[in-house]
Write a structure and sequence with these properties.
The chain is α+β, with helices and mostly antiparallel strands and 132 residues long. The chain is 39% helix and 32% strand.
Amino acid sequence: MAEDAGLDLVEISPNNDPPVCKILDLGKLKYANQKKAAEARKKQKIVEVKEIKMRPNIDTHDYEVKMKAMNRFFEEGDKVKVTLKFRGREMAHQELGMKLLLQVKEDTATIAKVEAEPKLEGRQMMMVLAPR
């Protein structure tokens, strides 16, 4: 029947009993599947991890500027990695850094959730936030 129609006999689901076959143009089927896959890739959002770098003794205005940038990243659907760098004697006052990261966590509580709690790695403290 497929040869008479000038089309192909395509096996749709070979695992069924009996196997399901359709008479259609294989070239058109492949083209449609390719278009569908391209459309799915186009609509997909790649989540990026943006990084905000701070120091433990950051001033209030600088902190507010960083928070505005962070809010913009969350609106775009990106994750934010907050990095706090300690230099020299600042390592002796790690509690200030922890306090700052907890403040960031508190300020973004409504729009973001903590994905990785603040932790110290060498001379820097990091925390990852993801949009809600």
